[in-house]
Write a structure and sequence with these properties.
Elements lengths: L12 E6 L1 H9 L3 E8 L2 E8 L1 E3 L2 E6 L4 H6 L5 E10 L4 E13 L3 H10 L10 E17 L1 H4 L5
Antiparallel strand pairs: 1-8, 2-3, 2-6, 4-5, 5-8, 6-7, 7-8
Length: 153
């Protein structure tokens, strides 16, 4: 059977859970993720660039946005997700962090983050938001043991 440019969908893959430290290391290695929050009692998602500092996820936001005016000042529970997936080989990883988002209020600390985290979008982006992880889950999609020769056939 022909599947075009995609690998045979029957090729086995395993989903391996990642230790928290490895998940945060992978998250720190990519510049872009998605913040998930509640808006009008429904889930909302925004793509943002980030950095990982001291085990926390740090993002920037424009003043007046929902993230800066409703989510972070309220200390809302959010999720943050980033991944790196190889669509040709069907391999990669995904990390999801659930925690509390808060504005960084200390001017010196905010300035230090601003110097390290350059926004990808235009605008003031003067608000710095820190997500403190409560739950970190990471998964890696890897070739099945039988496919790598590590298992029995």
């Amino acid at each position: 059977m022909y599947y075009g440019d995609w690998p045979d969908p029957m090729t086995a893959r395993e989903l391996r859970e990642l230790p928290e430290a490895e998940a945060l290391r992978l998250l720190a290695g990519v510049p872009l993720g998605r913040i998930v929050f509640t808006r009008h009692a429904l889930p909302a998602i925004r793509p943002v660039n980030h950095l990982v500092a001291g085990g926390h996820i740090v993002i920037r936001s424009n003043p007046g946005t929902i993230l800066s005016t409703e989510v972070a000042p309220a200390g809302a529970v959010v999720a943050y997700e980033a991944d790196a997936l190889d669509m040709e080989r069907h391999l990669g990883w995904s990390v999801i962090v659930t925690g509390v988002a808060r504005l960084v209020s200390d001017p010196a600390e905010a300035a230090a983050f601003k110097s390290r985290l350059r926004p990808w979008v235009a605008g003031e982006m003067d608000q710095v938001i820190r997500i403190s992880p409560e739950i970190v889950t990471g998964f890696e999609l890897v070739p099945a043991a039988a496919e790598t020769g590590a298992g029995s056939r």
